[in-house]
Specification:
402 residues, 81% helix
């Protein structure tokens, strides 16, 4: 491996890890910690809070459909400056919001700056500058998301008992702007300034526009696979209380299973990063949904704690594979130069999928659709459709002009 590229890969991994961790401040699991005091202060019931948050999330996700290409047109230093500036401003807006409209705008900016731009830049930089170690670099960057999920809820939940929630958001803004932005700008300055890294394949084959992606067989063949994991996990997590009631699980048991989910996701991310480097992401594309299929079979056919553990472990293993493999697939299929545009479109579609999934499951549960039947149908999709899409993808690759 070229020593220069190896140095860039290590720097990109550190950059991706830190940026992905910082995106946690705009993720649902972190914002949700403040749900109770926010609802009390703004006199919002659960429905109103959900509508405000869901609307802000959907709007930010749709904007990422257009803003994702920023990562192609700006060097990493300027892209992360923009992302963290939006995130810090949003955190300060949360601290100062006094009206539900201001709360909506703050949440919109948080979702855009955190889950959207900061997480996007983290993964694009890791994928673009990973070189022959792209899988491992992506895995390390993705672990930043998991690290945030592991550390921030416990620490901030403890602080909420002693510090007023607005001051915590103000401290987040100061931390991001004063401490982390200069640190990431220094890391980014050490990376190549052009969109395609040193040593990258210059034969780019990505469509030149978003519309071109939607008529590209390569892109369309990957989508049904790439959206499985976020679709199913969002539905299960949001309706975990109802699923627990139907299956007789205790709330504490579900909480422990979520820890198992995080551990399985971390292990899967680490393993799949190395598998990508050895075999390539395209070869692994149809395999990573299989643990999720087994999870759905367990939910359909088993009761008690065994079903709970297998459900969350299987979903975690698939999520870890999705984290690394899908991002690497975009590079293998389309090259580096338009990676931001491609991933931005994918993020927009993923937000739509995760918005639709809880609504569909909620509607089905409300109409007494058997849980076992829904789980088995999902298992069949996750086990069969990826292999059909793989055939479609091979045909599209042979045409190459699609």
């Amino acid at each position: 491996m070229n020593p220069a590229i190896e140095v860039y890969s290590a720097r990109a991994a550190r950059f991706g890890l830190i940026a992905a961790f910082l995106s946690s401040f705009g993720q649902t699991f972190f914002i949700g910690l403040f749900g109770t005091p926010i609802r009390a202060e703004f006199d919002l019931d659960e429905r109103a809070w959900g509508l405000i948050y869901g609307g802000a999330t959907l709007a930010s996700g749709m904007l990422m459909f257009w803003l994702g290409a920023i990562a192609d047109h700006l060097p990493a230093r300027r892209a992360i400056t923009l992302a963290l500036s939006v995130l810090a401003a949003a955190a300060m807006a949360m601290a100062m919001a006094r009206h539900p409209a201001a709360l909506f705008l703050a949440l919109f900016a948080l979702r855009l700056g955190g889950q959207g731009l900061t997480g996007h830049v983290a993964i694009v930089v890791a994928a673009r500058h990973g070189g022959s170690r792209r899988g491992r670099v992506l895995a390390l960057a993705t672990l930043g998301f998991i690290l945030g999920e592991a550390l921030l809820p416990l620490s901030f939940a403890a602080l909420l008992g002693h510090v007023e929630w607005r001051w915590l958001w103000a401290s987040v803004a100061a931390f991001v702007l004063i401490v982390m932005l200069p640190a990431l700008r220094r890391l980014a300055a050490e990376l190549p300034g052009d969109a395609a890294p040193v040593g990258a394949d210059r034969q780019e084959t990505a469509p030149a526009s978003r519309l071109g992606l939607f008529v590209s067989g390569r892109f369309l063949a990957v989508l049904p696979i790439a959206l499985i994991s976020p679709f199913v996990i969002t539905a299960v997590f949001l309706h975990q209380g109802t699923l627990a009631t139907l299956r007789g699980w205790l709330v504490t048991e579900v909480a422990a299973a979520i820890v198992l989910f995080a551990a399985a996701q971390a292990v899967s991310t680490w393993i799949n990063g190395r598998l990508v480097d050895r075999f390539g992401a395209l070869r692994l594309l149809a395999w990573f949904p299989l643990p999720g299929a087994l999870a759905m079979i367990a939910l359909a056919s088993m009761n008690g704690l065994a079903a709970l553990w297998l459900l969350f472990a299987g979903l975690g293993l698939s999520a870890g594979g999705n984290n690394v493999i899908v991002s690497a697939v975009w590079v293998e299929l389309f090259g580096h130069r338009r990676l931001g545009l491609i991933r931005g479109v994918y993020l927009g579609l993923m937000v739509l999928a995760t918005a639709v999934a809880p609504a569909l499951l909620g509607l089905a549960l409300a109409n007494a659709v058997p849980l076992a039947g829904m789980a088995l149908a999902t298992a069949c999709y996750a086990a069969i459709v990826p292999w059909l899409c793989r055939i479609w993808l091979r045909a599209a690759l042979r045409q190459r002009g699609s």
